[in-house]
Amino acid sequence: MSATLIAAMFFTVALLVTTAYFLMGSVPLLILKHDTPMDSRFVRGFYNTYYLAVMFTASATALSYAFSGWLAVAVGAAALALLATILRWKVIPKMDSLRAQIQVGERSAIAAFRRIPRSRIAFAEMRHLASTVATRQQLEVRPNPSFKRTCLRQAA
Questions:
Q1: For the segment 46-59, what is each residue's pLDDT rounded down to a tens digit?
Q2: For residue 67, which of 4, 38, 79, 88 is within the disulfide window of CB 3.0 to 4.6 Å?
């Protein structure tokens, strides 16, 4: 197995670990009231860290698969990196504006802030499914004819 393929498998697993981190960490966020500035600051930091981790691991996964010759999987991983980048550009500023409104005491901002984690969990599930499919394809071993010839030569 080539070094690029090993790197691709490593970064695919890292992408799955990132998803597991987010899914396990986001469940408690669903029960927070988000009515204090500290809650909203924590949630913003959690999402910012998550998006940065996804952007890095998905980009590294895409590069590894591209160098391995698995272009279809590389395009999928690049799409995940792009989607995480776009979501970070949209979600984090929205959270910042809602945090400012929460500090003033607007109740409608609290309700809007609470809706954000629910919608992002769906994104994480979609990403988890894509990573699982990529890992499954990666683990399917294809027969290597040169390996068989090498084994036969060594046995003789």
A1: 889 989 999 999 99
A2: 4
